[in-house]
Design a protein that fits this description.
The protein folds into 2 domains: about 160 residues, Glutaredoxin (3-Layer(aba) Sandwich), CATH 3.40.30; about 100 residues, no CATH class. About 40% of the residues lie in helices and about 10% in strands. β6 and β7 form a beta hairpin. α3 crosses α4 and α4 packs across α7. The protein is globular, with a radius of gyration of 19 Å. Bound molecules: zinc ion. The site of zinc ion has 8 residues, from α3 and α4.
Length: about 300
């Protein structure tokens, strides 16, 4: 289905296809030098003829400041989620001291999991089954298209914040190391009132004999190397840098500034060591001191963690 044109000239160039999110409430990133799997599949790859052709939502287009939501059903525009998502760029760029992005993200919101999965199987055959994806899709002679695919469900708010964080970062940075990309998305996926604290991650890390190893995380380049513990640790390092004090925060800010112009500024750990002495011990101490967010009432963002 042809989609309505978006604002032109506002998409940022992206180098790779990135596909994100794992059903275990973490997220997975798949990077390719080229994106053959992101191209529309030919007819023989379509679902069986007995099933209606898979199409992306497009009956309605809800245009917001930095994203367009495509959907085939009526949406309650007064839902607080919209205001939260509207505030996300300011939250992300403000906290990270990055310039705003002009990129427009296309968000395809399916009404059911079945329709979403059928579409993804048909169009992105090579991607593993995930509950949401962010894909930077190369276009001939132009900036890449930023697309998010997901479906209505209890996880929606968390997933949208997570995927939109990836999209926002990719609009302003040359490259984002895998662990840092997921750590930042894991931080900003949380409702703003939680101030970046993921109580499930915090509890799991405190209960385990957690031995931080950022050097190990920084070596990862393939999504298969990141499992749930690695997503937790990535979140923890980001929380340390953003919430333990000015020295650690400056390390992250400086590193992100470097990533604006240099896709490979080297490892972050030595910078953190210069600032904190023993970053691993600092992280353990920080996690012991973090206050879990107070339980709130109904929250759509809690999701099936
Ligand atoms: Zn992610």
């Amino acid at each position: 289905m042809p989609l309505p044109p978006l604002r032109s000239g506002s998409r940022q160039a992206l180098a790779a296809l990135a596909a994100l999110f794992g059903a275990f409430a973490g997220c997975e990133t798949v990077r390719h030098d080229t994106a053959p799997s992101a191209q529309p599949r030919s007819a023989e790859a379509a679902p069986a003829p007995a099933i209606a052709p898979a199409t992306s939502p497009g009956k309605h287009a809800t245009r917001r400041d930095y994203y367009v939501l495509y959907h085939d059903f009526e949406l309650d525009k007064s839902d607080p989620l919209f205001a939260e998502l509207d505030a996300l760029p300011e939250q992300v760029f403000g906290e990270l001291k990055l310039p705003p992005s002009n990129a427009i993200v296309q968000v395809f919101l399916f009404d059911t999991q079945e329709r979403y999965e059928r579409y993804m199987r048909a169009k992105y055959r090579n991607l593993p089954n995930r509950r949401a994806y962010f894909i930077a899709e190369p276009r001939a002679g132009g900036a890449d298209e930023l697309k998010i695919f997901t479906w209505m469900g209890d996880h929606l708010a968390t997933d949208l914040r997570h995927e939109l964080t990836h999209a926002l970062l990719r609009g302003v940075l040359k490259e984002v190391p895998l662990w840092l990309d997921e750590g930042l998305a894991g931080y900003f996926e949380l409702p703003p009132a939680q101030d970046g604290v993921n109580p499930q991650h915090l509890d799991a890390l405190r209960r385990s004999a957690f031995q931080p190893d950022l050097a190990r995380l920084e070596k990862f380049t393939q999504v298969a190397q990141m499992e749930k513990p690695e997503y937790r640790e990535a979140w923890a390092w980001v929380h340390l840098m953003l919430r333990s004090g000015p020295n650690a925060k400056k390390v992250l800010h400086d590193y992100l500034q470097a990533l604006r112009t240099d896709p490979n500024p080297g490892p972050l750990l030595p910078r953190l060591r210069d600032a904190l002495g023993e970053p691993e011990q600092a992280l353990v101490d920080h996690l012991a001191s973090v206050e879990p967010p107070k339980p709130r009432g109904r929250s759509r963002a809690a999701g099936p963690k």
